[in-house]
Write a structure and sequence with these properties.
Layout: H1 4-23, H2 27-42
Region (Disordered): 18-43
Biased composition (Basic residues): 32-43
């Protein structure tokens, strides 16, 4: 059975992974990626 706790734990793992990969990028690359992501969300 897949519980809400398991789903939450998986979500946290993915969030940590995303934060870790973002930390390894150069500041300018991270800024450009952030702008593209925000622009895409508005559509």
């Amino acid at each position: 059975m897949y519980t809400i706790e398991m789903a939450y734990a998986r979500m946290r793992e993915l969030q940590d992974l995303a934060n870790r990969s973002r930390a390894h990028q150069s500041p300018t690359a991270a800024r450009k990626a952030g702008k593209k992501a925000r622009a895409a969300k508005k559509r």
